[in-house]
Structures are given as C-alpha cells and as structure tokens.
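pasting for ref. prot 1 ->
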Amino acid sequence: MTKTRTGVLTLLVGIGVTIAFLYSGKGVNHLLNAAATVQNPRELRLDIPDARWESSFFETLEERTKKVNLASLRAVVLPDHDLEVRFWYDHFETISGLIIRRSSEKWSAAYLHQVHDNQPSSVKLESIGAPKSGWDAIWTRLSSAGILTLPDASKTKCKSDALDGLGYVVESNLDREYRVYRYGNPQLAECDEAKRVVLIEEIIADAFGLHRFQH
C-alpha cells in the first residue's frame, strides 16, 4: 500500500512539474502553438505576395523558428475568433520579432530573438508581459494603424532609395486567412503605407519596450 501511494504521489508531482514548465517562459512555444488547429478545418486562404523577398526571407526565418519549435503561421488554422500576428525585424542575417496571440479571448505575447548576431542557432523565444496600456488599447492602436490590412510594398509605389538596411515583415492569421507583407526602410519612404509601418513599429516599441534588434 505504501509503495502504491508513493508511486501515485510521484506521478502527480511529475504532472505538476510538466504543467509548470509549459506555463514558464521556456515552454512558451507550446502555448503559442496550442489550439492551433481545429477539427475539420476549412481551407486556409493565403494572401502571399509574388515578390522576390518572400522566399528568401522565410527560408532564413525557418532556421530560427525550427530551433524553438514554432509552427509556420501559414500552416495552421486557428479557432474562430482567435488571431495571431507576427511582427518581424529583418536585417541581413539577424531576425527578431514580436508574436501576439489571442486565444479564447486571452492575450499573450512572446519575443523571438538571436542572442548573437549572424548565429541562427542562438535564437530564443521568451514570453513577455502585457503592454503597459492594456491589451484592448494596444490592439485598437495597431488595428487603426493598419497592421492587418496593409498591402505588400510591391503592390504600391512605396519605395526608398536605400539598397539595404532594415525591413519589417508582418504576418497575420485571422478568420481562416493568412496574410504577409514587407516594407524595406519605410522610414526613408514618403508614402502613407510606409508611414503606417513606422507607426506600427513605434506603437510596439512604446507598448513592449522592444526596439529593433535589442538582445
């Protein structure tokens, strides 16, 4: 009897440790991928621009996301009313980004970043706290700035003269539709779309304290 009780106690402790891990920063990738698919999903609509940057960026990004077991956002169907947005900072071999998720009316955020430049293997995915102004306020600001609706820069006349520098890539998955777009050096362009991307980056920086390529 004593051995049986000891075995049950050990099992319960093990379960408790596992649950604690999943809800810690180290297990944040499990939380982000939780409930990523639904039963009998309808086909996910894909809005992917036919642009030269797309394939090369996501090939490079995949090196990072695989390290933390983060699923491709274009390969999952979220439950109704859930959403996920990924805002990526793209600079040569260094990629970092903010991941915002709303699941069952609960919000969460995580930050994917490289500990060392030019070393994809050094990538980390860490949970970050709620925005200081609250989730409703920050999401209203991001939505108003057009984070879900902006077209890819290739579909506009929005260009800067810089040949390299900083790019912003935005992915979204909502209402069974996946969208992605990119703007390179929007701070140097004059069009309204570029100014909106800069505003989105400023909103994120203010709300979460993230500034481009901080480690």
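and prot 2 ->
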Amino acid sequence: MLKQFFFALMTLIVANASAQDKDIRKLTKLNEDWLHSYITKDPATFNKIFADDFILISPNGTKVTKAGMINNLGNQETVSVNIDSVNVRLITENAAIITAYASFVLKMDGKDVSGKNCYQDVYVKRKDEWQAVSAHVTLLNMK
C-alpha cells in the first residue's frame, strides 16, 4: 500500500514538472515572439500575446494599452533586439513573471542608435492560453 502511494506521488510530481516545463517553454517563446514583432511590425502577434486589459509602463512612465502598443508598432524602426538574459518564473499554474535584459538597435533620424533595457512582464493563463497582462520597461542606456 505504501509502495503504491509513493509510486502515485512520484507520477504526480513528474507530470507536474512536465507541465511546468511546457509552460516555461511557451512563455519563453512568447517573450521571443514579442520582441521579434518589433522588427517585423507584426500586429497579429501583439494581438495574440496581449490580453485585452494589458497595460505597459514605458521607460518615461507613460501607460500604454494593448491598442496603443499595436498602434505604436509602426512608429519606430527596430533594427535588432537581443535577449541578453531571461528568467521565467511560474508563480502559480496560471500566473508567471518574466524578467529580462535586452540589447537593441533602433533607427532614429536615419542613424542606428543602440541601447539596453530591462523589463518585467506578467502573464496569466486564461482559457488555457498565456497572455501578457502587464509590463514595465526600464531604459538602462542608449547611445
């Protein structure tokens, strides 16, 4: 009886770890897709990733909604984005936080301008799909 209990417990633990790994891979991919969408100017990806109640706090403190993010997509030319480091933490089975550092190159006034930022995104799983509900970006430098 005790042996069966431990077998069932281990099966449950392995299944839970597998589900967590799957969620972490999915969230990592969403993070990559989000950043890549700045280069491709792909509003469909933003529409899929951002929840309708999404709010981003920009480096200057401005609140930007999902609609604002999609509308602003064409206003800047992103040449490249590189994720320098990323940490995906599952808080619960339906909530996660991504903390990352990124390097980027923008085209401004015809010149390439490079910079670094850090950001934190909050995701929730709704109807079995992960969506970003909140983000905060801090500009570390730009030259």
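The beta strands are 50-57, 63-65, 77-92, 95-108, 111-126, 129-142.
The longest strand covers residues 77-92.
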